[in-house]
């Protein structure tokens, strides 16, 4: 009886041993899956709540700006082609570093006395890159000179611009976030071969949209 009483334990021990082996094998082959961080989380952590809201309301800025400006300026708006058409961004929005011919157009207004459509004199701006591949844009001339960094976004057809303004004879713009009154946020897109635009929704100038067109200078400076 004693000898027989031990026999029923053999299959049980074998079963337990088999389960432990399977668990050990599962533990050894298990891998930890880490979800990649959303690109919008990176620039969103830097942008102020006000600028995140401006970017999120970009579609509304386009709609209201064009609705107000088209009755009197339809011909001028149409002549600008893709520059003044929403949702015109193409793939590969990253600009090539170098010097650019730039011009600005403001559309719509948030203040009664502001013009609903205005073109400004052309100027030069520059796209810079550092060793890490970070792209920045600097407006080189004028009394209001925005400068800032381009951030990757979840939307592969656009980059996010976060920058600030240099005023008057200031040599350097303030860092983004240093003076909220100068902070500037927008969307950077490629809209045609060798043509980009920077769209600033709800700027502090009294417009509803500010659009900067960028085309590379033909003769790039050496170096």
Give a verbal description of the structure.
The termini are far apart. The protein is built from five helices and nine strands, in the order αααααβββββββββ. The protein is globular and about 45 Å long. It has an eight-stranded antiparallel beta barrel with strand order 1-3-4-5-6-7-8-9. With about 220 residues, the chain is α+β, with helices and mostly antiparallel strands. The chain has one domain: Lipocalin (Beta Barrel), CATH 2.40.128.
Give the helices and strands, then pairings.
Blueprint: H1 2-7, H2 9-29, H3 39-46, H4 49-56, H5 58-79, E1 98-107, E2 117-119, E3 123-129, E4 135-139, E5 144-152, E6 159-167, E7 184-192, E8 195-201, E9 209-216
Antiparallel strand pairs: 1-2, 1-3, 1-9, 3-4, 4-5, 5-6, 6-7, 7-8, 8-9
Our measurement of the CA-to-CA distance between the termini, rounded to an integer number of angstroms, reads 96 Å
**SS-derived structural category:** alpha+beta
* Uncertain stretches: 1-19
Number of E-state strands: 9
Give the overall average pLDDT.
85
Signal peptide: 1-22
Protein name: DUF4893 domain-containing protein
Keywords: Signal
Provide a brief overview of the structure.
This protein is of the alpha+beta class. It has one domain: Lipocalin, CATH 2.40.128. It is built from five helices and nine strands, in the order αααααβββββββββ.
Q: Which properties best describe this structure?
A:
223 residues; alpha+beta; Lipocalin; eight-stranded antiparallel beta barrel; 5 helices; 9 strands
């Amino acid at each position: 009886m004693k000898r027989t009483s031990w026999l029923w334990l053999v299959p049980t021990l074998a079963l337990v041993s088999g389960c432990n082996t399977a668990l050990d094998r599962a533990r050894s082959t298990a891998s930890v899956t880490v979800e990649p961080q959303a690109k919008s989380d990176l620039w969103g952590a830097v942008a102020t709540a006000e600028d995140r809201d401006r970017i999120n309301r970009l579609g509304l800025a386009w709609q209201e700006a064009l609705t107000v400006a088209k009755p009197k300026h339809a011909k001028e708006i149409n002549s600008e082609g893709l520059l003044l058409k929403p949702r015109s961004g193409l793939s590969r929005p990253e600009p090539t570093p170098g010097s650019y011919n730039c011009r600005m157009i403001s559309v719509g207004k948030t203040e009664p006395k502001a013009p609903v459509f205005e073109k400004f004199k052309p100027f030069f701006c520059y796209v810079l890159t550092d060793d890490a591949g970070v792209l920045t844009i600097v407006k080189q001339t004028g009394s209001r000179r925005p400068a800032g960094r381009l951030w990757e976004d979840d939307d592969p057809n656009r980059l996010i611009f976060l920058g600030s303004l240099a005023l008057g004879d200031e040599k350097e713009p303030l860092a983004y976030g240093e003076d909220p009154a100068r902070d500037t946020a927008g969307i950077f897109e490629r809209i045609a071969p060798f043509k980009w635009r920077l769209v600033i929704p709800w700027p502090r100038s009294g417009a509803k949209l500010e659009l900067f067109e960028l085309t590379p200078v033909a003769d790039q400076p050496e170096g």
